[in-house]
Amino acid sequence: MCQVDEEYNGQLEHRGAPRVSKKCVKCKENTAVLIIRAGDAFCRGCFKDYFIHKFRAMLGKNRVIFPGEKVLLAVSGGPASISMLSQVQEGLSRDAPKKLRFVPGIIYIDDGGASGQSMEERKRAVAQLESVFRATNYHYHIVHLEQVSSLPSSVLEAGSSATEKPETGLSYKAAVDHFIQTRKNQNQHSDLSVENGQSHLSSLSMQEVQNEVTSPITPEHTQALQRLFASVRTLTAKEDLLHTLRQHLILHTARTQGYTKVMMGDSCSRLAIKLLSNISLGRGASLAMDTGFSDPRYGDVVIVRPMRDYSSKEIAYYNRMFDIPSVFIPGLDTKAQDKASIQRLTESFVTKLQTDFPSTVSTIYRTSEKLHTACPPQNTNTQLSAKCLLCVCALDTKLGDCIFHLNCNTLIT
User: Fold this and answer.
1) Which of 3, 5, 357, 360 is deepest in the core (most CB within 10 A)?
2) What is the pLDDT of residue 344?
3) Taking 60 as the threshold, does the pLDDT of residue 191 lie above it?
């Protein structure tokens, strides 16, 4: 058998690193500057077109977001969510036949209180993200994790889906035509009224943003949040709790501000890790909603994941080549060991396996595309006892009442 410390006296053949091909595989003219996969070498221009087209194609293929809808972009400061924000800017600013036609907003959940960051560190991270958000001229919301204690109980219930639009191609085309006609009518007004309206909306948005950013967070709120996370024993449970609280804050903000869609920046690599870790956590029945493109479990607010076709490698290349700034914010699992939690162990396993077998992430991701929930779709007529109190998913067990009461007791204590 081969041993780790066995000596071969230079008899093994040393293979050099693969070189980038001289020509781009798309345009066949320019010199390639990067390799995404084996044989896929792109030049700078073709890679940008490929990256933008993939984002637009994902939205166009699913046709979940209708023209004129308010869409909330959940930005954490990481590479994937910042890249998603950049793609939305690109799609709304370009004069192209397939221009994006929704109204974007941004939300950032400041969860530094859960990971033990000081108030100075949290303010510094918020200031860095605010500079990025202001450059977009979009309405943005800065929400602190401590505000979860003041959420209403309605956030634990699925809302009415009465505003849901038909998913047929004809109705989508009619909505696009109506939106274009409305914009043409608006452009016929005088330039003065347009400028006055834009300045009024800009001042109103900035006033609302300042009011939301400066919402008071007392040390008592932060201490209560830290006691909550200190009472959770394992890092696995802490990460799961943090994810649930984030979702509740995003959902509440979307409902109160009139957003009907929420964009999450989950990449293909992140969803592959999430799929395996959720199976380990016993969430196999809800994998279709946790990893799919659209998640309609909340009824009135639908979560979409337009970055699910991008690998972390593609996102890193794009951000580096086109100077897309990201903000590193320490989290619960920062500097944690591989075996500190189920999520961290799964991430380490998938990442190391991807290094030796480049098709690992894509194989897991393609498997998730074939998953469908076996439970009936959620609606307001479904009994409350048939849903989980925290994630609003249908319970995959006949002991619904027992688990519901167990979740209530766990949440109260």
Assistant:
1) 360
2) 95
3) no
